[in-house]
Amino acid sequence: MFTTKRYMKTARVLGVALVAGVALSGCATYDDEFAGINSRLDSLDTKVQGAAQSAESANQSATQANQRLDQIERRVQQLEAAPRRVPRG
User: Fold this and answer.
1) Position 56 pLDDT exceeds 90
2) Three-state SS at 1
3) d(Cα 14, Cα 22) in Å, to the nearest integer?
4) Rounded to an integer, what distance in angstroms lies between the CA atom of residue 48 and that of residue 46?
5) Which 8-state DSSP code applies to residue 86?
6) Rounded average pLDDT over 38-47
7) Which of 67, 69, 74, 71 is nearest to 82 (CA)?
8) How many CB atoms lie under 10 A from the CB of residue 78?
9) Cα angle value 59/54/49 (rounded, 5°)
């Protein structure tokens, strides 16, 4: 009977070790999945930053173009408002 208790105790210890081993191997799988997700997030972050820089550059170009159009429009209005010249001749 003493031997049976010893075997039961050993079986419990091995059972706990087996469950712990399975649980830890599951954690390794999740670590790999998290690493993959983090890698994808980093890639998306890089793309978003690139798009934001492109948008900022486009915005600056548009602002400069609008300023140039405003200058041209003012000059056209000045020319239209100027008195007409009489041709010589």
Assistant:
1) yes
2) coil
3) 12
4) 5
5) P
6) 93
7) 74
8) 9
9) 125
For residue 79, the number of C-alpha atoms closer than 13 Å in the C-beta half-sphere is: 6
The residue with tokens 């003012």 is 74
Please report, for residues 27, 28, 40, 88, the alpha-carbon distance to residue 34 in angstroms, rounded to integers and kept in the order given.
Answer: 10, 10, 10, 84
Tell me which of 83 and 47 has the higher pLDDT: 47
Helix runs in the chain, H state only: 2-81
At position 47, the amino acid (one-letter code) is K
Cα 66 to Cα 89: distance, rounded to the nearest angstrom: 41
Q: How far apart are CA 79 and CA 73, in angstroms?
A: 10
Both tokens assigned to 22: 């399975």
Distance of CA 25 to the CA centre of its chain: 31
The DSSP call for residue 89 is -
Q: What is d(CA 80, CA 74) in angstroms, rounded to the nearest whole number?
A: 10
